[in-house]
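Task 17 of the worksheet. Students: predict the tertiary structure of the chain below and write it out as structure tokens. Keep your answer in the requested format; marks are given for formatting as well as content.
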Amino acid sequence: MSWRDHLRQVEPYVAGEQPKMRNLVKLNTNENPYGPGEKVKAAIRDFDSEVLNLYPNPDAETLRHQLAMYHGLADDQVYLGNGSDAVLAIIFLTCFNSSKKLLFPDITYSFYPVYCELYGIDYETIPLKDDFTIDIKDYMKDNGGIIFPNPNAPTGAALSKAQIEEILKHNQNSVVVIDEAYVDFGAESVMRLIDTYENLLVVHTFSKFRSLAGIRLGAAFGQKELISHLYDVKNSFNSYPIDALAQKIGEASIQDSAYIKANAQKVIATREKTCEALKALGFTMPESSANFIFVTHESVRADVLFKALRERSIIVRYFNKPRIDNYLRITIGTPEQMEVLIEALKEILSKQAEG
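Model answer:
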């Protein structure tokens, strides 16, 4: 018997590649192509480094209050963590302890099964329909919890608030988590349902809409009792998750919200224009409400396109998994980046046609 026999063995989540290439067009990890606003820049510039010898406020109370005000909630309805991944990790650990199976789609955020394996949570994946949308009737059965992104990832397809409320109405004895990482790019938030459903948790991130992937800040929203349990678990092993600088940047980001919303509208406009250009080249895709699109071509396989784009320093995301191994997920960048992508695809497809 070796000490190695007592180590936890898991297959970890694989994040999107962060390549170091010259003249890179990076469209693989759903980052916002536009930088943070002026108030964030000022907060970084004016930050008092002398406070770094002290622990930060353990619950980031000022940021928590500002985020609550922004969403029309009370402070005790907000939970903060190091990016939405850390928030989700606490949610899985806190909320999904039933002997019944956790339910989520078969095509969705690939961190969910990793958390289940790590925490020993039994789960069932529910197949999406052929058009990659969720059939809400599939979630009307006995379960130990439900989680899915809205819009879903990597498909970009979204449910309406009314559809999600039907799921909530039929599942009031288990926690339902709606992961709204991309909701601000065209989907309908369920934040207004929090006061009606005590078992609802809504998860947000500062990485996408707020252009702050580099500071690792995320949040969960729910009724007071559910949020208090998240903090109890968090405080059992990490009392100071949000560092002092991240708190200041987060506060400034709330004040920059008008600028950030304008950038989201730019992304949406670029997404729609890109979709039309890709359709003209023979691509099809589910309707996206996110800052990415999920595309397949009528005659050229996704892995071929992925490699050919990479040779041209254009990085998109390819998932070599059942049902989606002929699709590419493409982050929406600036109009200029998307023009580079379209021109590269025209060249690649032309060469493929020549044979």
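Marker's comment: The mean pLDDT is 96. The longest strand covers residues 200-205.
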